[in-house]
């Protein structure tokens, strides 16, 4: 089963609105990352939040992490048509020592101009 | 190079054939990862190299899949006796050290179609 699960699966908003995507995971983590993917290719790293952090900002992005609930959210403020993409959360697994990331199934964001 | 590159960008093959997919990581990155992504899903881990050795191959689905990184740079993912279920986008990523939290930089992927 997926370690990270995003919701909603799809989100459609108007340009200028905020977009919020959520991610839940099952096991303990070292950190959680958010990636963006256009047209099914080439993931781009957006932001990383460590397990001892609760909130992080990068430009129009705001990420929160609640380790007690095993959940994270990604907020994109003042969305633009160019933000249209799929967004994935990814976690590592410290208990296993694995360095590979475990991805959720993603949220497909559509920003209408 | 400036980023991770993968060749070919698209590969169409027939069931039962052998294919090789190539990944050129960012210069100086010691860690290299292969993932597979099916339509509408997130990437799934296949194998991770630290230098020349496969540090974790637990994601390879079966023994038809094999990967090498002989000089610690370029890697080749090899699939024998391809099946239709192998159709997916194969993504390669590299990171500087492979430690936890090290950003993984992804290539554009190879779209494999098995007819």
Describe what you observe in this structure.
The complex is a heterodimer of chains A (113) and B (115). By secondary structure, chain A is mostly beta strands. Helices cover 0% and strands 63% of the residues of chain A. Chain A has strands at 4-7, 10-14, 19-25, 31-38, 41-50, 55-58, 61-66, 71-76, 85-93, 98-103, 107-112. In chain A, strand 7 (61-66) and strand 8 (71-76) form a beta hairpin. Chain A is globular and about 45 Å long. The mean pLDDT of chain A is 89. Chain B has 115 residues and is an all-beta fold. Chain B has one domain (5-105): Immunoglobulin-like, CATH 2.60.40.10. Chain B has strands at 5-7, 10-13, 19-24, 31-37, 44-50, 53-56, 65-68, 75-79, 88-95, 105-106, 110-114. Chain B starts with a strand and ends with a strand. The chains are: A mainly beta (113), B mainly beta (115). The A-B interface holds A 2, 4, 30-31, 33, 35, 40-45, 48, 50, 88, 90, 92, 94, 98-106 and B 31, 33, 35, 37, 39-45, 48, 50, 55-56, 58-59, 89, 91, 93, 98-109.
Task: Write down the secondary-structure element order of chain A.
Answer: EEEEEEEEEEE
Count of structural domains of chain A: 1
Number of helices of chain B: 0
Q: What is the CATH domain class of chain A?
A: Mainly Beta
Largest interface: A-B, 27 and 32 residues
CATH topology of chain A: Immunoglobulin-like
Number of helices of chain A: 0
Question: What is the global morphology of chain B?
Answer: globular
Number of DSSP-assigned strands of chain B:
11
Q: What are the segments of chain B in which pLDDT stays under 50 over at least 5 consecutive residues?
A: none
- At the first level of CATH, the class of chain B is Mainly Beta
> Gap between N and C termini of chain B, in Å?
33 Å
User: Which topology of chain B does CATH recognise?
Assistant: Immunoglobulin-like
Structural class of chain B: mainly beta
Q: Percent range for helical residues of chain B?
A: under 10%
């Amino acid at each position: 089963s997926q370690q990270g699960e995003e919701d909603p699966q799809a989100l459609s908003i108007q340009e200028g609105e905020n977009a919020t995507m959520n991610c839940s995971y099952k096991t303990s983590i070292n950190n959680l990352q958010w990636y963006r993917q256009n047209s099914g290719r080439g993931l781009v790293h957006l932001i990383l939040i460590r397990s001892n952090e609760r909130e992080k900002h990068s430009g129009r992005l705001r990420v929160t992490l609640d380790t007690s609930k095993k959940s994270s959210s990604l907020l994109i403020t003042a969305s633009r048509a160019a933000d249209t993409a799929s967004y994935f959360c990814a976690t590592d697994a410290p208990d296993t020592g694995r360095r590979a990331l475990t991805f959720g199934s993603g949220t497909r964001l559509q920003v209408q101009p | 190079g400036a980023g991770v590159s993968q060749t070919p960008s698209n590969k169409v093959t027939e069931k039962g054939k052998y294919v090789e997919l190539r990944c050129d990581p960012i210069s100086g990155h010691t860690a290299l990862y292969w993932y597979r992504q099916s339509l509408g899903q997130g990437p799934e881990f296949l194998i991770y190299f630290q230098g020349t050795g496969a540090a974790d191959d637990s994601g390879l689905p079966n023994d038809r899949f094999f990967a090498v990184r002989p000089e610690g740079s370029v890697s080749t993912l090899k699939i024998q006796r391809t099946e239709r279920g192998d159709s997916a986008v194969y993504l390669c990523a590299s990171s500087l050290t492979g430690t936890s939290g090290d950003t993984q930089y992804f290539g554009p992927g190879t779209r494999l179609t098995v007819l």
